Amino acid sequence: MINFEALFKVSYGLYIVCSGDNNKGNGFISNTVFQVTSEPPRFASCCNKGNYTAELIKKHGAYSVSVLDTNVSPEIVGTFGYKSGRDTDKMTGLNIKYGGTGVPIVLNSAIAFLEFKVVQTVDVGTHLMFIGDLINAEIIDDTKDPLTYLYYRQVRKGVAPKNAPTYIDKSKLESKSKDISFKKFKCPACGYIYDESTELIRFKKLPDDWVCPVCGSDKSDFFEVDNK
Ligand SMILES: Cc1cc2nc3c(=O)[nH]c(=O)nc-3n(C[C@H](O)[C@H](O)[C@H](O)COP(=O)(O)O)c2cc1C
Asked: Looking at 15-29, 85-99, 172-186, which range is the least confident one?
């Protein structure tokens, strides 16, 4: 038996993983960046095969990881976590640094960054796991804390889209999907749906200063939609 609620007990951080160069750079939000060996310092990053960034990492053989701050701006999450670099230039207007390998590094909402050269790529099915040797690591702001996935979900009320490796279809979360009294609320600006059946908290109980995790619109702008 698999109780999918147990999967929410596994801890993660949240990062922007970038690749490319100063001509065409791109990145995506990831909760699956983790250290796999200490000598040499080696990390893994799990990237959906359909992500535009996967193409860039394969081409350039390197990637950067920006460690996000607890107070990451909703625009950063919306752009890097819900839009594809195929349709939009995510880097315009941002504070970008270029690493020794030439990959872009996003400094906005970041407290530290790491840079890697890919030494192995493992096909894990829907995703590619890019194993990288650490070649540079710097702290940007030592006074702030790193954003965790738990904080993102419970305090920022954020969700992960289907191509995140830790996405869980709501039909698997039995206890919640049985209750038909859950409602849905839609963001008028970006169309994001807050679906109470997959959240830990009712929409009305969210704090007044809660904002859309995708585009940053106010909670008061949301409207209820048909619960289909
Ligand atoms: C909280 C959160 C966690 C995510 N984690 C991952 C991840 O670990 N791996 C992944 O491939 N996509 C993950 N995603 C989804 C990508 O960030 C998203 O599909 C992005 O738009 C891909 O951008 P790209 O096509 O420009 O590369 C996550 C998204 C969010 C919001």
From this structure: 172-186
- pLDDT (tens digit, 9 = 90+) per residue, 73-89? 988 998 999 899 999 99
DSSP string across 90-136: TTTTS-EEE-TTS-EEE-TTEEEEEEEEEEEEEE-SSEEEEEEEEEE
Residue 181 CA to ligand 1 center (angstroms) comes to: 30
Give the residue carrying structure tokens 């969700």: 159
pLDDT at 135: 98
168 has which bridge partners? none
Q: For a pocket test of ligand 1, which of 16, 28, 63 has the largest count of ligand atoms closer than 8 A to its C-beta? A: 28
Residues with CB under 6 A from ligand 1: 14, 26, 28-32, 46-48, 51-53, 77, 81-85, 127, 152, 158, 160-161, 163-165
Q: What are phi and psi of 12, to 5 degrees?
A: -145, 165
| Residue 97 CA: distances (Å) to CA of 8, 21, 91, 107 | 34, 10, 11, 7
For atom 5 of ligand 1, which residue has the closest CA? 30
Higher pLDDT, 7 or 122: 122
Q: Rounded to an integer, what distance in angstroms lies between the CA atom of residue 184 and that of residue 196?
A: 6
Centroid of ligand 1 to alpha carbon of 28 (angstroms): 5
Task: Report whether 80 contacts 28 (CB < 8 A).
Answer: yes
More confident residue, 132 or 166: 132
